[in-house]
Design brief:
Homohexamer; trimer of dimers. With 167 residues, the chain is an alpha+beta fold. Helix content is 27%, strand content 29%.
């Protein structure tokens, strides 16, 4: 018999994992990534002077919406009932870096790592899209899981990185 928590069946064909026997627990995932740009572009974003409007407000909503649609975007990913999503930003004017952090929460049978990573990815792509007329050389970089809690596999914390305190 194949491992019940693999995406491959006994014949090696792709399938959605059956999580029906897993315990329902609170699960939280935090992901982070960044967009590298010129200091001038970051200044335009932060001063609300980007031609397409409020970049951070639109990117925040895009990230939240993406987290809610992850099951439709990522093959074999379970559609989840998400109880909370937040997308926050930390600019560094000295380096032209805009960091993005997403926190996603659910109570269910499978984790929300993919939802948090998707939220960061789509927020970063939205920033690029809204700013590309000013700067096409921006780089989306270093998208990664920072922390994951809940579920059978327990707690994961990326060494040397803590989730932001945004309360």
């Amino acid at each position: 018999m194949s491992n019940p928590l693999t995406h491959l069946d006994a014949k090696g064909a792709a399938r959605m994992v059956d999580v029906g026997a897993k315990a329902v627990t609170e699960r939280v995932a935090v992901a982070r990534g960044r967009v590298l740009m010129s200091k001038n572009t970051l200044d335009l974003i932060l001063e609300g002077e980007m031609p397409k409007g409020d970049v951070l407000a639109v990117a925040r909503v895009a990230g939240i919406m993406a987290a809610k649609q992850t099951g439709s975007l990522i093959p074999l990913c379970h559609p989840l009932s998400i109880s909370a999503v937040s997308v926050d930003f930390r600019p560094d004017r000295d380096t032209g870096t805009l960091e993005i952090e997403a926190r996603v929460k659910t109570t269910g049978q499978t984790g929300v790592e993919m939802e948090a990573l998707t939220a960061v990815s789509v927020a970063a792509l939205t920033i690029y899209d809204m700013c590309k007329a000013v700067e096409r050389g921006m780089v989306i970089d270093n998208i990664r899981l920072i922390e994951k809690t809940g579920g059978r596999s327990g707690h994961f914390q990326r060494e040397g990185e803590e989730p932001w305190d945004v309360s």
